[in-house]
Amino acid sequence: MNPSIWVAGARPRTLPAAAAPILAGVAAGVGSGQAVPLWRLLLVPALCAIVALALQVGVNYANDYSDGIRGTDDVRVGPTRLTASGLARPGTVRNAAFISFAVAAVTGLVVVAISGTWWLLAVGALAILAAWYYTGGRRPYGYLGLGELMVFIFFGLVATVGTTHVTFHAVPPATWAAATGVGALASALLVVNNLRDLAADAEVGKRTLATRIGDRATRWFFVSLLVVGFISTLAFAGLTTPWALLGLVGFVVLLAPVARLLAGAVGRDLIAMLQATSLTELALAFGLLIGVAVGS
Question: What NCBIfam families would the database entry show (predicted)?
């Protein structure tokens, strides 16, 4: 099978949501003056990034499989769906998700062994369960309107705070500001994704948050998450260095897409919004890291 199909099925546009909290977690430690050996500063976050990326790819394949076998992906305007389109057998897609989870688990075990924080094994297990049960199982929480909350928790708080903790053995206040910022933008990615699919989801009975609160409220909820990300960056800069305000640069690319979103953009017109939000989250994390490096 063409490898490009599997790359598309992994939904590359979502991967910044996995990388951003790792960068932000390192930025929080550096910006707060935490000192660690260079090997640790380079190795541990790199391993954390592998864990986060593997989890993100795993949840994307798991979502593809679960929605595909339920029939809720039969009509979509977004990325390639391997199961629903018939490009791959359902069992193969499911196995790809399990392999991704296994990579995350093994790499996470190495991180725990290096850091000595064995209680994080329980957190890792919860993260894998959350990835599977987003759309898997009999009562997936993604169908209960809880997807955005779980993304904020695991791809915001857990990933960012966890990275700072295992790298620096500390969780300074700036970590929570960084975690809130990237978590809000990661949640915003899911909000705009569900807004794009709102009509199709409502038709097949997929009860995302967007289908529960409606089109207009979803659009303003998205904007409110951007505001949270903006304010969190200001808070981070106040706790570390003014140079961390470089994290705000990425918000510039959202100005035009947000205007179109509030004007009523739908369907494929929202794909640009997804791309801009993804870039903004990554730019925020890079900006924080570059800012604290310059400031220190």
Answer: menA (TIGR00751), PRK06080.1-3 (NF004751)
CA atoms within 13 A on the CB side of 201: 23
**Distance between CA 223 and CA 262 in Å, rounded?**
9
Question: Long-range CB contacts (< 8 A, 24+ apart) of 94-97?
Answer: 94/61, 94/62, 94/65, 96/6, 96/9, 96/61, 97/58, 97/59, 97/61, 97/62, 97/64, 97/65, 97/132
Lookup: tokens for 229: 């990300």
Query: How would you write the pLDDT of the chain (296 residues) with one tens digit per residue?
Result: 577 888 888 888 888 889 999 999 999 999 999 889 999 999 999 999 999 999 999 999 999 898 888 877 655 556 678 888 888 899 999 999 999 999 999 999 999 999 999 999 999 999 999 999 998 888 899 888 999 999 999 999 999 999 999 999 999 999 999 999 999 999 999 999 899 888 888 887 788 999 999 999 999 999 999 999 999 999 999 999 999 999 999 999 898 889 999 998 887 788 888 889 999 999 999 999 999 999 98
User: The CATH number of the domain where 28 resides is what?
Assistant: 1.10.600
CA distances from 42 to 49, 106, 129, 205, 233 (A): 11, 19, 28, 46, 24
Count of the separate structural domains present in the chain: 1
Between vectors from CA 122 to CA 118 and to CA 124, what angle results, nearest 5°? 95
- Alpha carbons 190 and 17: distance in angstroms, whole number: 10
The answer as to whether 7 is a domain residue is: no
Q: Is 3 within the bounds of a domain?
A: no
23 assigned to some structural domain: yes
d(CA 82, CA 93): 7
Nearest to 85 by CA among 140, 8, 14: 8
Is residue 113 situated within a structural domain? yes
